[in-house]
Amino acid sequence: MYTCNTERMIDKIAAFSKFGDAGRGGITRFSLSPEDHLARNEFATRMEKIGAAIECDDMANIYATLPGSDPAAKRIAMASHSDSVQNGGNYDGILGVISAMEVLETIASEKIPHRHPLTAMIWTNEEGSLFPPAMMSSGVITGRFDKEKMLASKSRLDQGITFGAVLEASPWMGAATNRLSAEKYEAMFELHIEQGPILEEAGAEIGVVTCVLGMVNYRIRTFGQADHAGTTPMKNRKDALFAAAKVLTYLHEKLDRLDPALVYTTGEIKCHPCIHTVIPDEVDFSLDARHENPEVIQKVIEVIEGIPAEIAGCKTGHERSWARDTVYFDSDLVGKVKTAADSLGIKNRYINSGAGHDAQFVCGMMPTTMIFVPSKDGHSHCEPEYTSPEECTAGASVLLNAVLAADAHY
Fold first, then answer.
1. CA–CA distance, 113 with 91 (Å, rounded to integer)
2. Tell me: the pLDDT tens digits for 363-400?
3. Residue 342 φ then ψ, to 5°
4. Containing H/E element for 265?
5. How far apart are the C-alpha atoms of 291 and 263, rounded to whole Å?
6. Strand ranges for 22-177 from DSSP E
7. What is the pLDDT of residues 34-59, one digit of tens each?
8. What angle do CA 370, 129, 64 make, to 5 degrees?
9. Residue ranges of the alpha helices (H) in 195-261?
10. pLDDT at residue 347, as a whole number
């Protein structure tokens, strides 16, 4: 079994943390921003130094490929993203890129034999923080998203700027023939921080990821009557916000009885007219629910559809925004990750992913799997995000050996 180098990992984590440094221990690095260009340059420069060839495709995804002994063999990819959410951390996404780089650096420095070309890859715009949606490029590459619609995506900060314009102006746009594809690639691995507390609480250093959870997303609305806040008696009010609070209470009481593994969130709320002297006449909020079992998701849908038509004098409504089924990763690759962790003596456990990742789209195209490393205190998408150098190196070592096992298998 081979191991990666902790000092090299520390050096790369420190180097990439400078690109988009937000001044409080984290980063803001939107996709194809000047800060992201710096990160991509660092990636390309370091990979070229070890003899990897750099290519880009039409969505500005970057591929750094170390040749194998068989030029005719398909490539094996290790991929993640370099962009972040606003005021995010130094590990989400980029640790997968750094780990892929470390795998190639270890193979090059130790002259580890391998038959397949091995590729470290950066996905463009996984977060969708500036140009929605999330997982944009992997969605285009795998046929989930229409490319023209994605190019028309408008900046959240400036509606006059489109993703297509930024892509066209970037130095990273290449040819569509360079895309990840089943014809050119054998398999893909993605290493990522867990973004939750399960591994840390279990004392495990590695999460052997089996699936990405199915989910359903609804918009729920309440409709009341706007009136003056100071002159309308309480008994005469049709307060849409009060009704929305009662709907949320109803949902929590019902959903909490379904399954302890079910997670659900109201993360967005719109209140109209949102004036402190006016009783709200319309409230619109999101409900995001996730679980592995489709039967549990169906029960969630039944609860939502069972919301009373009228609450607190206000009409209610609901509309499904979108849904996805649970996505299971390739069982053979999952087994190779488990074997690699066990052989290295690294404590591990099976785990699912509640968050979406590029790998969930790619697994419909080729064998794919993920590796998780712990997130301290479960934090992610925030500046306190942290994974120790030792845990990062353990993840990279598992990735290295799992990739080499795949190289021997295919």
1. 29
2. 999 999 999 999 999 999 999 999 999 999 999 999 99
3. -60, -45
4. strand 263-265
5. 7
6. 53-56, 62-66, 75-81, 118-123
7. 999 999 999 999 999 999 999 999 99
8. 50
9. 198-202, 240-255
10. 98
Return mean pLDDT, the chain: 97
CA 100 to chain centre: 17
Burial tier of 328 (Cβ tally within 10 Å: 0-12, 13-18, 19+): middle
CB-based burial of residue 86 (10 Å sphere; 0-12 exposed, 13-18 middle, 19+ buried)? middle
Which segments of 180-293 does DSSP mark as H helices, in order?
198-202, 240-255
Tell me which DSSP letter residue 27 carries.
Answer: B
Model pLDDT, residue 208: 98
Neighbours of 350 (CB within 10 A): 13
Q: Cite the DSSP H helix spans in 270-330.
A: 294-305
CATH architecture of 214-324: 2-Layer Sandwich (3.30)
Report yes or no on whether pTM surpasses 0.85: yes
- pLDDT of 178-197, one tens digit each? 999 999 999 999 999 999 99
At residue 103, the pLDDT reads 98
Per residue in 302-353, pLDDT (tens digit) is 999 999 999 999 999 999 998 999 999 999 999 999 999 999 999 999 999 9
The first and second tokens of residue 104, run together, are 């190639």
Four-residue CA torsion sign, 163, 57, 65, 356: positive
**Parallel/antiparallel/unpaired status of strands 263-265 and 206-212:** unpaired
Q: Which two tokens stand for residue 89?
A: 């951390």
Average pLDDT value for residue range 77-84: 98
β strands within 179-257, DSSP E: 185-193, 206-212, 214-223
Q: Cβ neighbours of residue 160 under 8 Å, at least 6 residues apart?
A: 154
Using CA atoms, how far residue 336 sits from 211, 375, 402, in Å, is 15, 23, 5
Cis preceding linkage at 273, omega within 30 = yes
Domain ranges of the chain: 6-213+326-409, 214-324
Q: Which fold has domain 6-213+326-409?
A: Aminopeptidase (3.40.630)
Burial of 366 by CB count in 10 Å (0-12 exposed, 13-18 middle, 19+ buried)?
Answer: buried
Helices and strands in the chain: count of H runs, count of E runs: 12, 15
Structural contact between residues 267 and 187, judged by C-beta atoms closer than 8 angstroms: no
Helix (H) or strand (E) holding 270: strand 269-272
